[in-house]
Amino acid sequence: MKISRRRVAAVAGLSALVLLAGACGSGKSDSNGGGSGSNAARTEPSRSFTGPNGETPTAADQLKLTPEDEAKVKAGNYTAAFVWHESSALTKAVESGVRAEFDKLGIKVVASTSAEFDAAKQANNVQTVLALKPDAIVTIAVDPTAAAAAFKPAVDQGVKVVVMTTPPKGFTAGKEIVGIVTVDLTAFGKANAELIGKALGGKGKVGYLYHDADFWFTNQRDKAFKDWLGYLYPDIEIVEEAGFSDPARTEDIANAMITRNPELKGVYVAWATAAEGVLAAARQNGRNDLKIVTNDLEANLAADMVSDGNVVGIVANGSTRVGQNLGIVAAYGLLGKKAPALTVTEPMAATKDNIAEAWRDDFGTDAPAEVLKK
Fold first, then answer.
1. Does the structural domain 57-183+319-346 have CATH classification 3.40.50.720?
2. What's the predicted TM-score (pTM) here?
């Protein structure tokens, strides 16, 4: 749940998880997540995680609309609007998935707005959309605290609010919102561990660049990678950890990490925008052997992967499937049917071999030529 990220608010999205304030740290790993040694006792990591308010995930395949449900929605002549945090490839892909489901259900889209990470603009967008009297709104909060006030009028008017990943503060499923839809976070971590483990042949030393901010989505996703790496590949050691909040700093962080650890064979990075800096550092240092894995499918990194560069795997969000499930959850709300508090889709591990399939699964379009060119 690309899930790419421009600041804390963007982190709110399945993809753009970037903060303005820079912060980093480093140190040896002493947890189960890497560096534990082949003789250390290992426990299989938990596959569970929780939502922003402690919600328990429900797999997307549990969402069900009967033919009767679909007929009722179609008969309702309902309308809906999008109140997004940003305008990006991720958002467009998610929206395309929602629209496909809405088209099937006869729900008319009356507006689609972008706040460009501006909480005040999102509040204005809510007012603009409400003037069109939609029955449902699909959204992601730019700033959870500000969004609580911004979306209160929608709740008061009985609009069914469906959330991707980050809800307004204090809004809970079955009350102010219908439910939340995102991506399985532990599946992200396990897939990344498997990607780098395979690339390194199950042994070697790696670096770990994690999101150093208090955000439920990225924190649990990063931890899952660390836990699964330690469990699946005890002979792969995390020799240095570094936190960041501003992805623009990862190039400097990676340069220092590579200099301090010439034996480094791989790096995990929290998401694709941040991984761009690590890729640049690897190239600057002539480290063609350094293997990089990350989350959120992105064209530059995908092109490097296809051309046998440093990137060996990217775990994609399946954004169009996220959108489809947002559409179904919206239908639950319109029908007065109780939806899961937190619905999760499965991410897809993209490699050189399946990039065309992964791209279409994520964005609903064919991969651009520059990605597929070897």
1. no
2. 0.86
For residue 10, pLDDT over 60 is answered with no
CATH assignment, 20-45+184-317+350-372: 3.40.50.2300
* pLDDT grade for 236, boundaries at 50, 70 and 90: very high
SS3 readout for the chain? CCCCCCCHHHHCCCCCCCCCCCCCCEECCCCCCCCCCCCCCCCCCCCCCCCCCCCCEEEHHHCCCCHHHHHHHHHCCCEEEEEECCCCHHHHHHHHHHHHHHHHHCCEEEEEEECCCCHHHHHHHHHHHHCCCCCEEEECCCCHHHHHHHHHHHHHCCCEEEEECCCCCCCCECCCECEEEEECHHHHHHHHHHHHHHHCCCCEEEEEEEECCCCHHHHHHHHHHHHHHHHHCCCEEEEEEEEECCHHHHHHHHHHHHHHCCCEEEEEECCHHHHHHHHHHHHHCCCCCCEEEEECCCHHHHHHHHCCCCEEEEEECCHHHHHHHHHHHHHHHHHCCCCCCEEEECCEEECCCCHHHHHHHHHCCCCCHHHHCC
The domain spans of the chain are: 20-45+184-317+350-372, 57-183+319-346
Asked whether this chain's domains 20-45+184-317+350-372 and 57-183+319-346 adopt the same fold, the reply is yes
